[in-house]
Backbone:
């Protein structure tokens, strides 16, 4: 040690210091170069690890809407995991566990590959409270592993209680109505971001110049984006602005949007069975609000993408009590997407009115509004149309079927059993857009479909011009035989097509006087002989396919018999 100190003291001279610098410079240069290479290698290694982790993390997709979603206990929901773009001839080990606090609820191990990249596992939680899904994906070939933790809630559903914000908005709405009695109330469950859907319905409603004491229209929205996430301030301001413009919106303490199962996939029904449906919740809360504050004969539930012929409804007669009318589906086409056995312990769904729309009498609305009066909540899952029918199952309420409610023929496939054709009898047409609303005939408010435009049928009496009269076909004498000439044009012959000719006496049931199969004939001559004077309607109907039902394209002309 002393020798080293002396050597250090001797080297402290200027000459010795210069010598030392000349001797040690190459060493210092080498020392500087070595850390730079080491640091570069370290950074490259770190970058490779990051890239590896990012590639590995992109391989695991969690399709189930779990994050920040509340599920109900004792109901199956579908756990759906997928390896995205798996390497060929590679195997992946997947470990899945669900933890509630310190208790492991579910724990299992699976092998996935490019041939079997998905895991589909129905799960049912019995414990309530916060849960954590832990998934660990490992590449058997040594490519690393990916770990994800997702938190979700399992809670017993409760009765929806209006918040202070909802109570205030409902109070403001009621102050704008000087009357509380009307013949029919029309409601359309919708969501805050769906204003572009509401505007065409409002425009149609304004064109009818409908008296509020005859019919009222309300849109039903929710206070929450989903679960307990409230609308933020800007959304509330948008809501209040639109409400003050139209005063036709009922605010409820329901989820505003079914984000958790909004994807158009068959798994949506599993997810919808385990969470609260915004549409089902809004329907129930609207029944409560309307039964408390309005007197009405009927309520019509439509979609915010549906056309409703309000004038036709008011001109028609319906049962005043125990009415549940719609386009009834049974057996349910939802099977096996939504398991009736898993959800309710029943073999199949009951007969129900499809979601296009349905009509209820006032007593049925009040019955539904009181179903939670005991303090026990109703199950408000999806799909709303089926669940509503389940609510009515214990009661003596007949299901009344109508073909006048259907899905728009331009939108759905020809194989859709709920597809219909627009006519003067169309009551509710589902899946319509702004363009379809522009096809409403201004003279009578009837919506025309493309099928009405691309098929042409002209008919008139052959021979001399008839005497002019306040009718489309003119005037004929009672007992006189006249030939009615019918010429169809642009009629599809891809399927069996029938032309029907009806004569409809005023106040009497219609009857068929002639029919012809196409393309066997290119035109049809019908001999009409009407014995009794009066006003009649001559109607020509095109029926495509084997079934004959009200809803096919038809053309009517009036006839005066003297």
Residues:
């Amino acid at each position: 040690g002393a020798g080293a100190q002396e050597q250090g003291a001797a080297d402290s001279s200027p000459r010795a210091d210069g010598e030392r610098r000349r001797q040690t410079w190459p060493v210092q240069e080498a020392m500087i170069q070595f850390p730079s290479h080491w640091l570069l290698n370290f950074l490259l290694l770190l970058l490779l690890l990051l890239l590896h982790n990012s590639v590995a993390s992109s391989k695991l997709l969690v399709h189930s809407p779990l994050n920040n979603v509340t599920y109900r206990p004792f109901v199956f929901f579908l756990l759906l995991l997928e390896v995205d773009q798996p390497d060929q001839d590679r195997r992946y080990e997947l470990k899945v566990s669900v933890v509630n606090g310190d208790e492991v609820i579910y724990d299992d191990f699976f092998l996935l590959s490019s041939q079997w990249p998905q895991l589909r596992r129905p799960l049912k939680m019995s414990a309530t409270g916060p849960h954590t899904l832990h998934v660990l994906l490992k590449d058997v070939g040594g490519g690393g592993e990916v770990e994800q933790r997702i938190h979700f809630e399992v809670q017993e559903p409760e009765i929806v209680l209006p918040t202070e914000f909802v109570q205030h908005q409902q109070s403001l709405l009621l102050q704008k109505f000087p009357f509380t009695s009307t013949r029919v109330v029309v409601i359309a469950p919708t969501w805050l971001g769906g204003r572009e859907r509401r505007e065409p319905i409002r425009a149609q409603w304004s064109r009818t110049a409908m008296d509020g004491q005859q019919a009222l229209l309300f849109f039903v929205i929710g206070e929450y984006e989903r679960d307990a996430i409230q609308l933020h301030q800007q959304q509330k301001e948008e809501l209040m602005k639109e409400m003050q413009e139209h005063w036709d919106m009922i605010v409820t303490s329901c989820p505003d949007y079914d984000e958790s199962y909004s994807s158009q996939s068959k798994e949506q029904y599993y997810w919808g069975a385990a969470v609260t449906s915004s549409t089902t919740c809004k329907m129930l809360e609207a029944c409560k609000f309307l039964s408390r504050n309005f007197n009405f004969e009927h309520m019509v539930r439509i979609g915010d993408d549906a056309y409703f012929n309000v004038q036709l409804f008011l001109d028609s007669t319906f049962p005043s009590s125990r009415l549940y009318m719609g386009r009834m589906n049974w057996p349910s086409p939802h099977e096996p997407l939504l398991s009736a056995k898993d959800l309710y312990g029943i073999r199949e769904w009951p007969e129900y009115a499809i979601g296009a729309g349905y009509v209820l009498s006032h007593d049925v609305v009040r019955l539904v509004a009181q179903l939670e009066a005991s303090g026990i909540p109703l199950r408000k899952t999806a799909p709303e149309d089926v669940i509503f029918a389940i609510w009515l199952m214990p009661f003596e309420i007949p299901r009344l079927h109508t073909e006048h409610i259907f899905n728009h023929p331009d939108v759905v496939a020809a194989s859709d059993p709920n597809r219909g054709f627009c006519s003067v009898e169309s009551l509710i047409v589902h899946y319509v857009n702004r363009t379809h609303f522009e096809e409403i005939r201004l003279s009578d408010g009837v919506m025309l479909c493309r099928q009405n435009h691309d098929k042409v049928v002209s008919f008139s009496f052959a021979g001399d011009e008839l005497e002019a009269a306040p009718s489309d076909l003119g005037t004929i004498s009672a007992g006189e035989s006249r030939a009615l000439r019918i010429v169809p044009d642009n009629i599809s012959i891809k399927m069996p097509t029938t032309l029907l000719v009806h004569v409809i006496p005023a106040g009497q049931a219609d009857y068929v006087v002639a029919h012809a199969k196409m393309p066997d004939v290119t035109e049809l001559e019908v001999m009409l002989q009407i014995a009794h004077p009066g006003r009649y309607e001559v109607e020509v109907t095109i029926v495509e396919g084997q079934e004959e039902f009200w809803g096919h394209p038809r053309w009517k002309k009036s006839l005066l018999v003297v």
User: Anything to note?
Assistant: The domain at 455-561 is CATH 2.60.40.1930 (Immunoglobulin-like).
